[in-house]
Each structure stands twice: as C-alpha cells, then as structure tokens.
Specification:
By secondary structure, this protein is mainly alpha-helical.
Length: about 210
C-alpha cells in the first residue's frame, strides 16, 4: 500500500519514516528523550497516520515508541545521576539546555516531585530534560522508572491512538490540544496527585 501524504508539519518526515519505518520511530524518540533535539512527538504522530492507512502496524508503533521513550529517559537519568550539574552546565547548551532553563526545570521538579515526571512527558522542553533533571536532583531510580513508564504509556497511547483514528486531520487535533494544554496538564497533575494522596492515606491507615 502506498504511503499516505502526511499533513502539515509532518510532511518533512515522510522520507525518513518511509525508508526506515519502525527503526526511525524508535531512534528519533530514543535520542529525544535523553536530551538531543529531535522531533520525537512529531514522528510518533506521523507513524500513527501511517498505521491508520495500513502502512505500519499500530501495536508495533506503540510498543516501539514506549520502549524507546522509557529507555531514552533512563539514559538521561543516568547522565544526570553520574555526570551531575557540572556535566549539564558544560554540555547542556549544545542541546539547548542552558543553565537558566536547567535551573528552572530543577526548581519545577523540586516543587512537584515524582508526579511531574509523568506530566512532563506532554510538555515540550521538559520531555527532553525529564530524565537528566530527575538524575541530578537525586530522585530514587525505581520511583523515577514507575512515574516515567506511566507517562510514556499515556503519551504514546494518546498520540498514537489519535493519529491512527483521525489520520490527515491530526495536525488540527494537535493544535486544538496544544491550545488547551495547560488545562490538560493541570487536570493530569490533579489526577496523579489524588492517586498519590490516596496511596499514602491507605498506608497510614494500615499502620
């Protein structure tokens, strides 16, 4: 089956996705998630459109994207944990992670804790710095892994499903979602916080 024309800003990924398929999806999302500027979210949308036309398998796209997202963030976590702030301050500017942006991200993580790891998946800039900042702030790896996997599952699930279902209209849907992103993030943060509070309340009652 011929590849469908990709709409709007997705069109420039057609040669890459058409030639490398699943490899392109995994590689681009992987490198984006440990800080390299790459169109991870864009290629996920494009792959969803291709899957909707039968060019790719939607389950394979989702599984590969999820694995790449989790692995990429864990590489970022390792970079932040081992290299620390000194490494980020020295090399971060090459991936647009300036000391000012890094300081703001650390402050944001410090205020919101583990739940922001899940929500950050949907925020441009935080998505790329997510793992690195979690590592430099000393977040426990298992805690990071759990929240990160949840965020990756939600992120992949939302965009793959929407792109698969709406196909050529995905850019319109994406623009609408971006317009109300703040409300979506607040709602997601409240939901995650509610689950966390419920968990601690249960543990306290059990004790």
């Amino acid at each position: 089956m011929a590849a469908p024309p990709l709409p709007g800003p997705l069109a420039h990924l057609a040669p890459l996705l058409g030639h490398y398929g699943y490899w392109a999806v995994g590689a681009v999302i992987l490198v984006e998630d440990f800080g390299v500027p790459a169109p991870g979210e864009t290629i996920l949308l494009a792959a969803g459109v291709y899957a909707g036309s039968g060019r790719l398998n939607v389950v394979a796209v989702a599984v590969i994207a999820f694995a790449a997202a989790v692995l990429g963030d864990n590489i970022g976590y390792l970079i932040g944990r081992v290299g620390g702030r000194a490494l980020v301050h020295r090399w971060g500017r090459y991936v647009f992670l300036t000391p000012k942006r890094f300081e703001a991200a650390e402050e944001f993580f410090g205020r919101h804790g583990g739940k922001i790891v899940t929500v950050a998946r949907f925020v441009e800039g935080l998505r790329q710095a997510n793992g690195i900042v979690a590592g430099t702030t000393g977040m426990h790896w298992r805690r990071f892994l759990a929240f990160n996997a949840l965020g990756a599952a939600l992120w992949v699930g939302v965009w793959t499903t929407l792109a698969y279902l709406v196909g050529s209209h995905i850019t319109t849907v994406y623009d609408e979602v971006a317009r109300y992103q703040l409300y979506i993030l607040v709602a997601a943060a409240v939901l995650v916080a509610a689950f966390v509070v419920r968990h601690f309340v249960r543990r306290r009652h059990e004790r």
